[in-house]
Amino acid sequence: MEFNMNTNKPVIALLGAGSMGTAIVKRIAAGKKILLGDISEKRLEETKKELSYAGYEVETHQVDACDRASVRSFAEKAASLGEVKYFIDTAGASPNQSSPEHIVKLDLVATAVAIDEFANVIAEGGAGLIISSQTGYMMRFSDEIEGLLAMTPTDELADLDFVKKDAVANPGIAYIASKRANHLRVRTAAATTWGERRARINTISPGIIVTPLAYDEFNAAGEGYQQMIAASPARRVGTSDEIAEAGAFLLGEHAGFITGTDLLIDGGVIAAMNSGKFSLWQ
Question: Can you give the pTM of this predicted structure?
Answer without folding.
Answer: 0.94
